[in-house]
Design brief:
Elements: H1 2-13, H2 16-27, H3 35-42, H4 46-58, E1 62-66, E2 72-76, H5 81-90, H6 92-108, E3 113-119, H7 121-124, E4 133-139, H8 144-161, E5 165-171, H9 172-177, H10 182-189, E6 191-196
Parallel strand pairs: 4-5
Antiparallel strand pairs: 1-2, 3-4, 3-6
Length: about 200
């Protein structure tokens, strides 16, 4: 047990690909996975996914189920203490993104913002060490001076934390106009309300 505990963490965390495989499986904890399904969802090569699954099985975080002569499915051993520990660790990045985003929003509340959402990798839990923290802010009315103030605060946060806070600012009319745009659709796909009313 101790050997597993000291090895499974670096096995996953040293590789962004293995981390993504684990995060994807944790999003659907009761699902059975084939290697090809994970390849399609993560866009990671077959050999890399296969090695990740094999390693996780050896550590006791996965079990395999033989479907027929050729096909094998994998599922999480969700009661595994090791897996729960790993889940906490890989979610730290999401918690960090949340904390930074919420601290930033608390700082700019006085700018009369209507709503703010965290979107992209910060909201989905797939944040990498070099990823931006993406925030969409909606104002009642768009004003140049107010936007400059908010962007200056974002730049100050980014400099102090050595992490880029990327802010998109719109007003209610612009949001309504852009509601069918690719950008808004991507925000809707992965977002978390930080402040104010729901946008959609």
């Amino acid at each position: 047990m101790f050997t597993m505990r000291t090895n499974i963490i670096p096995f996953v965390l040293v590789s962004e690909n293995r981390k993504l495989v684990v995060k994807t499986m944790l999003d659907y904890p009761k699902r059975q996975w084939s290697c090809s399904a994970l390849e399609d969802l993560t866009n990671i090569p077959h050999a890399t996914v296969f090695r990740a699954l094999k390693g996780l099985k050896e550590f006791g975080a996965l079990k395999s189920i033989k479907l027929n002569r050729k096909d094998i499915a994998y599922e999480l051993v969700y009661e595994s203490i090791l897996l729960k520990e790993l889940e906490k660790i890989i979610n730290i990045e999401k918690l960090t993104a949340n904390k930074i985003a919420n601290d930033f929003i608390r700082r700019i509340k006085a700018k009369n913002i209507k709503s703010a959402v965290l979107y992209g990798s910060g909201a989905s839990g797939k944040l990498k060490s070099d990823s931006d923290i993406d925030i969409l802010i909606v104002l009642d009315r768009h004003g140049k001076s107010k936007e400059e103030e908010i962007q200056d605060i974002a730049a100050d946060f980014s400099s102090k934390l050595n992490r880029t806070i990327s802010v998109i600012i719109m007003d209610a009319a612009e949001l309504k106009k852009e509601k069918n745009s690719q950008f808004i659709k991507s925000v809707q796909g992965n977002m978390e309300l930080l402040y104010g009313k729901k946008l959609f």
